[in-house]
Amino acid sequence: MPSPRDPQLEIALGKSALLKSKVLAIFFGIVWSAQLTILIVFTFIYKTWFSQVTSEILIPVVSLFGLTFFAELYSFFYFKKVVREGRAYAIKKAYPVVFLEVTFPSLIMFFLLIHFPQGIPFTKMDLMNGPPVFLYLFFIILSALYLDMKISVFIGITAGVEYALLLIFWGQDVIAETFAPLLFFKSVIFVVCSVISGMVSMKIREAVLSAMRTKNEMIQTLDEKVNEKTKEILLKKEEIEEKNKNITDSIEYASRIQQAILPDSGKIKQFVSQSFILYEPKDVVSGDFYWFKELPEKGKECFIIGVGDCTGHGVPGALMAMIGNSLLHQIVNEKKEISPAKILNLMHEGIRNILRQSEEDTSTRDGMDMVLCTVNLSEKKVIYAGANRPLFYFTQNTFHEISPDKSPIGGFQWEEKRNFNETIIPLNSGDTIYLASDGYQDQFGGTHNKKFVKRNFIELLGNIQKLSMEDQQKTLYKNYKEWKGTREQTDDVLVVGIKA
């Protein structure tokens, strides 16, 4: 049967099982202490009587007394430990104590009665047999509380053995007159108590099992509810995964569209051999974009190139990039406008119209920063216009920065009309120009997790001037990855370099 430490039984009985163990342990300690005291007193009272007994009788008697004494002593200290440590009583340890308590006192009396046929006063012998009667009653109660019928059956069998001994020795008058009534009383008490213990155990067992069945039903009900909720969660998870897959597929498809709209870097390389494009979107789609258009009517090596940095990144930034790309095609291809400043002016008006930013109740303030250049390598000049993005260039290894207009394309307009300005820059053979968004210099990283900043970006550009454009791209990419490390990418990164 399960002990009080069994989790299932503790579910039914709760913490009361351990409390019952402590109470009964205290009871047994008291009873055994009393019995031990009686044995010691009995020894002192009859010490004169023992001195008259021969050694062949005294040695067995003392030995039996000693075994009983040590059994009592062990039981007493064991129960003190049970109470002190708050442990459940190990019912199996009752078997040797029961055997000693039942068998040895009876054997002592049989031994003494056989050697003293004149008889021993009954009132003196009940000191030996009285306490065990009460002790076994507590053992039986304990076994009932612990739902352990084995100890009750053991007590009943032991009592039956004693009763059998009584019948065997019934022919001796001294046994019949002096000892039989007490032994018969003990045997009857033990058998009756064992029966009562069985009945009590069955009642307790029935109550416990009923409580356990109720608990099991509750657990089963909870399991069913948990299973239902688990199924619902799994269904929701599948729905979310399906939606995420659809969204991811849509974004990836949008990325392919965006890549198709962006100028082919290979064709740019064919037209401007000394150039590179470093393009690292933060997400699948990007808010940074570059634009390129050949101008054969203006010269063999004349073209427009620009870099746009839209508000935000990811899908919102990509939508703005699509608008910017569309407006550039419309302005340059349809309206034939090639002036960088005028192109930016028209883009500003176009974005404000598309997003209805001129209306008073509008809440959209999205736009973009841009650096736009008309480059004529034949005439060795660059016409630059910028909206919040500067132009970097090196001539004869000397760095120059052309500051932009401090206004974005689109968004809030505080002036009556926005006009961007142009700057004409002469080019020498070997000069390099750089158009970039702010993603590279804004990347967090390094030992102290700080921004790379524009100063370091310009210094890095200066250090790679002697490299080919292909090697410049590789160096910029390697440095960016080393600076970023394992940290999250801060923004879209776009750098375009051209050498005259």
Task: Provide an overview of this structure.
The chain is an alpha+beta fold and 500 residues long. It has 2 domains: 7-222, no CATH class; 264-499, PPM-type phosphatase domain (Phosphatase 2c, domain 1). Helix content is 60%, strand content 14%. Strands 2, 3, 4, 5, 8 and 9 form a 6-stranded antiparallel sheet that branches. A hairpin with a 4-residue loop joins strand 11 (444-445) and strand 12. Helix 5 packs parallel to helix 7 (149-168) and helix 10 crosses helix 11.
H and E order: HHHHHHHHHEEEHHEEEEEEEEEHHE
**Annotated CATH topology of the largest domain:** Phosphatase 2c, domain 1
The outline comes out as: elongated
Task: Please give the alpha-carbon distance between the first and last residues.
Answer: 95 Å
The CATH architecture term of the largest domain is 4-Layer Sandwich
CATH superfamily of the largest domain: PPM-type phosphatase domain
Q: Please, what is the oligomeric state?
A: single chain
Average pLDDT over all residues: 76
Flag low-confidence runs.
1-19, 120-135
CATH secondary-structure class of the largest domain? Alpha Beta
> Mind summarizing the main beta sheet?
6 strands, antiparallel
Number of helices: 13
